[in-house]
Amino acid sequence: MTEPIDPHDLVETTQPADLSGYAETTQPAHLADDGGPAGQDHDAPAEVVRLIAALTAIPGVTQAQLDNSYLPDVALADLSLPNGPHADLPIAALRRSNGALANEVLLSLEFRIQRNEAGLRAAEFLSWWVREQSRLGENMQLRTLGQPPMVAGEQQLGRSLRFTIDWFYTDTSEDMVNVLSAVGGKALALELATEMYKDAF
């Protein structure tokens, strides 16, 4: 994932504005895997907050955040590095296309689940939802993320599992208004799907 930036820093850029680390939230707090709740970023755009809220409203999802990477800036050689800002990118997809498409932004909706039946149901529901979004024309996929089983003699296996929804978003206008509108649309779609199938949980 990309490193979150300070939303108060003014950066002149021709790329879409960075959404990294916006609206990280935990629900319910006592199930957080990292020792405590992460406060919601009240400076985040309303569309981002709504998408995160839609995701964490799904029973079994414990926390979520939205990050982004401007993929044309990613060199294929950097994908071989074991650590760093590109370690969690969809490496196979980028290699298969020999890099990013023009003006392509990866919106990464990362989340964790409860380690129980509710968490498995949440992962299955989101797997279906992402497949449907892809079938309807969005370049989306769901992946799992994990850390090395052990580091410096400390066990990580069983503690580091995360999920990410990769959304390969392209807008030739590079207009942030369009990106946020798309994010808002996805929030609505997820809300409607969750409400439609609420009895399945």
What can you tell me about this protein's structure?
It is a single chain. This protein is globular. The chain contains four helices and seven strands; from the N terminus they run βαβαβαββββα. 28% of the residues lie in helices and 22% in strands. The chain is an alpha+beta fold and 201 residues long.
Summarize the structure.
Helices cover 28% and strands 22% of the residues. It has 201 residues and is of the alpha+beta class.
List keywords for this structure.
two-stranded antiparallel sheet; 201 residues; 28% helix; 4 helices
Mean pLDDT: 81
Give the helices and strands as they follow along the chain.
EHEHEHEEEEH
CA-to-CA gap between the ends? 30 Å
Note poorly predicted spans.
1-17, 26-39
Chain-wise SSE layout:
Elements: E1 22-26, H1 46-56, E2 61-70, H2 91-96, E3 104-113, H3 117-135, E4 140-145, E5 150-151, E6 154-155, E7 162-170, H4 176-196
Helix pairs in contact: 1-4
